[in-house]
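Tutorial, part two.
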Amino acid sequence: MKPLAVIGNVNIDLILGPAAPWPKAGTEIIVDHDELRVGGQAGNSALAWEGLGVDYEIAANVGSDQFGRWLSEAFGKRSSKWPVRPEGTTLSVGITHPDGERTFFTTRGHLPRFNLDDVLTVLDGEKLAGGYALLCGAFLTEDLARDYDALFDWADKHGITVALDTGWPLDGWTETNCDATRRWLSRCGVALMNEVETTTLAGMNDPADAARALRALMPAGAIFVVKRGPDGAIAVDADGKFVSATAPKVIVVDTIGAGDVFNAGFLAALASGETPAACLAAGIAVASRAISTLPRSYGPAKASEEVAR
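Running the prediction step on this input gives:
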């Protein structure tokens, strides 16, 4: 199996819910569920690899508070070289809704100060040579995003294929954000984006057409994946062929981080030499299991969970 790493945002997630209807200002409601857990795109993907028993490296940073210490402890020796920033650790409060969707309130915290030196302090390019590095949280890790070209140069030097999932820009898909993402795609061997991100970035309504258009911006042999939630996933593979996979029907408990978990399943299969179609199926299986279990777990869904949403 080829080596795997993830680079990006690790923060605290406090999940509360479900809440419906949205409470009026100045009132209080009681919800049935709360969970304090590792979050962020990089954190979610790493937890999925951990749950699947997949070896990996993770480059991140933390704040200089009790939450930062807790995050470091959660990853044990993998976090031994993580830089500690003088800011408080980024906190996301996720309010879930009965339909499985969610609303986030997030502090800036430590994430904007994650930088290229932090990455190179943690990751060994020789050890990761020939593998895959999942790069995520671009619009939250501002200092690192400014040095993406240097990061791509480092990856190219070591034969590391970068898999990009930018996440949603806080200020939306402005022309500036779209231009930046297109430049980043030109340096990446894998793109992992959701349907809205794909169609918005390409300026097209059809996700398959959008995927083909965006893949044309990438290096030869690149793979462009579109995550479609309950509709499964599609991809344009390294040969330019269109592949797809369907999602099972599950009872949705919590969709937070579903796309990040998909990324982990997909890349683990890709690193194992599976076909693109099998990689899509693997990503969907892991994500479906994650969103339908409480507490969250990973791997293929049990037969008892293959029921109508």
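Residues 94 and 104 are 5 Å apart (CA to CA). In part three we will examine how such features are distributed along the chain.
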